[in-house]
Amino acid sequence: MPKFSVIVTFDVTEPHLRDSLDSLGRQKDHAPGDIEVVLVPVAPHPEPSGAAAEAEAEAREAAAGGDPASDQAADAEAAESASDTDDSDDGEDSADPGTAEERDPDTDEGDESVDTARAEGLAIAREFAAAPPPGLAAALVEDTRPTHSAARHAGAAASAGEYLMFVEGGDTLTGYALAYLADSLERSGSDLATGNVYRFNELGTRPSSAHRKCFAKTRTGVDVHAAPALLSDRLHGNKLWRRSFWTQLPHHHVADLPDRAAGRAAPDPDLDGDLDVVRALFAAKAVDVLSAPVYLRRDRTTADDRSRIGALTRRITALTALASALSGADRDLWDSRVLRGDLRVILLRMDDADDDARARFLDLANAYLDTVARPVLDRLSPLHRLNYYLVRKRQDERLLEAITFQKSVELKKAPVVRRGLHYFIRYPFFEDPQVGVPREVYRLDAELKVRQKTERVEWRDGRLVVAGRVGILNLRAAKRWHQQLLAFAVNTETGRRIPVPVKVRRAAEYRLPDVLTAARHDYGGFEISVDPARLRLSGQWRATDWRLELIVVNRGLVRRRVIGNPVSGPPERPPYHQVADNVWVRPYWNRDSQLTISVAPVRARVAEHRVSLGGARPELVLSGEFVAPPAAEARTLRLTRSPGTARLTYPLEVVGARFTVRVPVADLIDNAVDEGARGLRQEHWRAHLITPDDEAVEVVLPDEVASAAYGTGDGYHEVVVQRTATGLLRLRGGWAHPVVRDVEWSGRRLLISGRYSAEAQAELVFKARGRDEEHPVSLERDGSDFRAVFTPADIPTLSGTLPLSAGGYQLWARVRREDGGLTDIGAEISADLLRRLPLRMETAERAYTFEDSGSEVPVLRVGSDLRPEEQGSFAQKRLRETVYPALREEGGREEILFDSYTGRQFSDSPHSIYAELRSRGGRWADYPMSWLVKDGQVNLPEDLRRVRHNGHDFYESLARSSFLVTNSRQPAWFTRRPGQVVVQTWHGSMLKRIGFDIENIRGKSRDYHEKLAWETQQWDYLVSPSPWATPILRRAFRFDGEILETGYPRNDIFFSPEREAIARRTRERLGLPEGKKVVLYAPTWRDDKYYTRGKHKLDLHLDLRRMYDKLGEDHVLLVRRHPRVVDSVPIVGRDFVYDVSLYPEIMELFLITDVLVTDYSSMMFDFANTGRPMLFFTYDIESYRDNLRGFYFDFEETAPGPLLKESDDVIGALLDVDEVAAAYGAKYKAFTDQFCPLDDGRAAKRVVDRVFGAD
């Protein structure tokens, strides 16, 4: 009988089934015949159902509601709620090119039938079943099931294994998944084991945010009450089920469900299949939760729009059915989860729902709330209590206002107020007598929790000193008496508490760098001093662990906090210290990021290490000595691959008190994990000596024994003997990593030197953290030594030389593999260099710091161009509310302040107006002019003064300049000074709805329209591009001032006598090859695809590789990101893709463009002046038009080129562009006549004449 039955359920049109099956063939550590694979086909759906993707999206939203024990922080609520709840993991685009509609790029001609796709899908399954990989058995269930749920049950019934694993077609297992999960179950006896989940798409692999909290650490034998976060883990595929447990579960069968075709609101077996997992978790007596990823989940779309009456009815009915089956503590836990997560997901979609759907939601939600115990409601946080108070009162209009609030930046800014002895948060309708929400709804209690960070851990005069900042959220210790501290060392085994000295110190505001010039200081600093002698037990040095606990007393509130949360850098690697012979105190951070002080008598240590080449295969030889019991009893070395996914054991050769062990180098290399498009890598091995009683003894690598890397001879890999942050032995086997041994600043240059043991071709690159951006580093190699030079303050770009933008940049090696592909390998920092970091260089604009970000990872930290006294919310509030009004009172000065896209560019109509003014000479030749620049990322001519966005000079220029010429929104606090002239040139041409015409304002504050109305009152002039646009601009902005119907000045370039010369210079500047047709792809940004507010993702749906294959011979592709998008453009092929996002003026790019590919960008109105072809890649037109922004006219009917939904359609149109252009000639002319009648090369002159005076 097989040990494992892996049931693979697959849509018959699934194009990625082979990936799933290949991952089963890679399973390790199993005997032949241990694994049987049962393949069960599922009927195709007209739309992707996203069965488990929906479950995961739901799990993410449920997790956002928080656990009952931890849902306490108003700021956490804000962080979780600030993003749009669009049912996609991580707020990222979860669209997957591998859906049923995907086409084979090598064979498809655009007309493949469903029957053909079906035959191909089944053919892959039949091929695998007929000839499975060695050691596997496989069978195909011929009958197609209607749902994945039904297919799982059919597969389980047709299987015989002791353990069950379910994989959905297109997803994959990690190579160690089955062995890792089974090993845990066999040791624990639990009902099921669940492992972590990663998400992936064609761009790479990333941890699933929905599973991050649940899998933060490994736990065995827990239930949902001990680990409530388990209720957010709702996939089937990341779990290994005991068959005996699975067969006892109540299972729903499709035949038993009411007829969904009849319109009833029955649970959908796939869309609500996540609730089957919840039922199982409640039924399980014990669950093993394993932190390592076992399941790689492919991104999918979902067709379940829960703002629609049918979908929300079905979902709430399913939630209610599950609740009715639970009782007691189980029911309370589930109700808490539903109200914080599942139901709130639907509630937050009600601003997209119609009246009938909102009424149905109120009916169903109230019916559910009728059954919820009062204590469960009382334990909700204020935000949830407010939501459900409004639901109970059926105040749908006020509920919509509350929803808008929760999706806006207002949530994070809600102030805390005190009334009597209690604190309340000022959410909507607080103390509003017309609404009458009881004050207790807003009361804060447990939500007022401690926030703390550790900024120093060091030994001083033999004592361990721990320092940082601490305080109760929203209760700043502005005065010394506001906050008092007590500190204790607490033994983790006995609970013994020892008071230790702690000092309150004055420090910078919590979120600011702790420097004297910070904008605001308070008494939130602390410093704890621990005498290690007090950590002895009964006067003896014994192996034990201690933690540090702070008691914070603030205005009568008492809170406890275990010291944790180290800031990036040296605090992440606290030094160890010898306190007696062979006794060390080794501070370290546990998996909860809490500081643990380990008293660690040395029991075994390494004396030397080497690689032996004398045998049949190379061996790593470790020699050492036993120091203290029970080490001398050990006869085995156990290596455990972090984070616990595999074990290797080797016998010790023991002679007296010394031991030697031989580890085959190939074992470490072959057992390294490198999966998920190399986004999942495990190469480190923890080392323990194992006694006959299975006691694990840690092995120390003393400081006097150097770490070393040994190349394997293949040019790519190495084995490394390393010392952990606590001085213990650790091995690494896998890709060779460059080790940085020395760093220094020489002027503005960063000089890096180090060692790289591999012979492979490699280069160094700094990659931005948190966004897709990278910068190569000049590298010289001399054998295994290397030197590199990087100038972070002087980066060559298409806009000239610029500094790196603020943020962190990690150092990587980019290695060319034998197959020609590239792999990125993280660089490391040597132990000697670690002690000298951080190293800082300052320019007049900002600081650059080379530092360790933890785990020996080298990072270049680039600071803001704002001065310390300008940084932080308090500093900005002071500049806004105190400095700016005072500057306004000083009166005006001669200055024109220009702004393009809030300081992001030197471009657009403001640039044209600036050029027109300078060209006139006279008083304008040397008139003071300045330009707004964000984060130093714009180069300016010498006659323009740079104004730093949000700096003191920004507030001063807005307060005192004579003229403001901008194409962007201005801050709500800006008030035009008497005599000041504001010219709003705007930047769009009215395809997408703007201003007051946008019905659903996503992510904006409730007073968005009020702020917009105030802002437009500050404008003197509004520039219109055409007679058609003028009435729209007046209505959309409710602008009563003068509209300059002049055309957009930026389009004057198309009529310039210098345009041919400009085009020639532009081609030379870009280095484009001669004779190739230039295609410019310039998409707009997507409101719902972003990292954080104002930082949007590159939602790239073009298949660049396929474009290169089809067009690369005679085309080049320029890609231009919208200014809001922060990702870089992937470069494919040779001399084909050019990222021109930083080119300062897009109008110059238009001059060299033969074909424009865009979507809904207003640049179509500008490019129409060239008369050259336009293609519209509108893959998401229904969603964009109907849900995100909406259009002013029938775009499909009016567009001067074809609307294309697939990447292959774009390629085909480019290959036949002359025919396409001819077909759309009449529409093109009509488009130009309607939208471009004023474009004649004199728009800037007309604007300047009216605003600044005629020549």
Automatic annotation (TrEMBL):
Compartment(s) where it occurs, according to its Swiss-Prot or TrEMBL record: Cell membrane
- Please give the family membership noted in the entry: Belongs to the CDP-glycerol glycerophosphotransferase family.
Origin organism is Streptomonospora nanhaiensis
- Write down the InterPro entries for this protein, in alphabetical order: Glycerophosphate_synth, Nucleotide-diphossugar_trans, TagF_C, TagF_N, Teichoic_Acid_Biosynth
Region (Disordered), start-end ranges: 21-113
Q: Which domain of life does the protein's organism represent? A: Bacteria
Q: Which UniProt keywords apply?
A: Cell membrane, Membrane, Teichoic acid biosynthesis, Transferase
Q: What class of enzyme is it?
A: transferase
User: GO CC annotations?
Assistant: plasma membrane
Its ancestry begins with: Bacteria, Bacillati, Actinomycetota, Actinomycetes, Streptosporangiales
Q: What is this protein called?
A: CDP-glycerol glycerophosphotransferase
Compositionally biased intervals (Basic and acidic residues):
21-33
Q: What is its EC number?
A: 2.7.8.12
